[in-house]
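User: what does the whole thing look like in 3D?
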Amino acid sequence: MSEHHHGHGHHHHHHDNHFTDMEARVKALETVLTEKGLIDPAAIDAIVETYEMKIGPRNGARVVAKAWVDADFAEWLKRDATAAIASLGFTGRQGEHMRAVFNTADTHNLVVCTLCSCYPWSVLGLPPVWYKAPPYRSRAVIDPRGVLSEFGVTLPEATRIRVWDSTAELRYLVVPERPAGTEGFSEEELAGLVTRDSMIGTGLALSAEAVR
Amino acid sequence: MNGPHDLGGAHGLGPVAPEKDEPYFHAEWEKRALGITLSCGAFGAWTIDESRHARESLPPATYLSASYYEIWTRALETLLKRHGFVSQAELDAGHRLEQGATPKRVLKADMVAGVLAKGGPCDRPVETAPRFTVGDRVRTKNFNPETHTRLPRYARAKLGRVEAVQGSFVFPDDNAHGRGENPQWVYTVVFDGPEIWGEGVDPTLTVSIDAWESYLEHV
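Assistant: Here's the predicted 3D structure for the full assembly of 431 residues, as structure tokens:
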């Protein structure tokens, strides 16, 4: 896994005579499928562009920010997350059956898929590597506080932790608590406080000072 | 199956190590792997359940050491061969050698936006009423099928309570093996930490799974 990780600011240069195993393997697969007319390389480009440019955690941040400022929307999100989220234009692959779970003063929600990598793509985009990797998938259900500490999150001892293992086709979006001192913030400013990790449960929303 | 994918509660797999400002992709091939996997899924030749089972059926040592895009790629090769679209000889040669199966659909660039926006809903109507209601005490079944299931090992033979009736959905244990969609009611079942992990567990912990009706028994 790690041979493809490179330090920040570095770019990996590809040379035709120096493919890694996976580069060669995927290249062979794409070539065979293209020659057989089974895939359209331009469709692959379009898929990649969609998840690099259009579908990502800013979608989810808009959902959360709206829930923070609009009690009716929050209620709808609780009752029928798929429809409430669709009303903002976020639908589709791996977001067909959405559920929103709300953090409160005494309960923190954490989402995992121990069996594979189920993740709400329509609102969070592609899952990060750690979400799909064995350490997170193994420990989130048995040692959530230990996992949270690796994200720099320490919760009060009395806070109840609820872990949602996405074993079926429901996809979970955590609605973090609205940070203190954000009265009067615009929806857009609020969305700027909503991190991807806060919508998985491995983080909290940023504090008010982050945007003002 | 009790495969390498069923990771809940395993020890020794290391720290989570989140990467700051993680890029969407760590190599160009990962982009292609994503696009190829989704494009081939659009053939309509296999279900998401069959593809999950292909991934969890990789050799355990391979599964645990591979990145997720590598898992996807290796499983996709299995599916493409199983359904007659490519041969191992073609993968070895890196070129077309023979005529293979014809898919129902080839995903073209102008179809991508529509296909991704539509997704693949897997809720299906069932004719029976739900056997369980919110608040019911239930016990998950104890079984160890060699085939696909979405009841994790850590949650088998455990006492929990039904928190929500989530609707009726395609049953993956059957659908992964071509036995039909056979939809069932799905419930969110929540367990207290000690019921799953025994003594020493964080007393504030509860864990839920989403369980198909046949995974559950009345207590």
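In plain terms: Chain B touches chain A through 100 residues (CB under 8 Å). Strands of chain B lie at 137-140, 159-169, 184-192, 205-212, 216-218.
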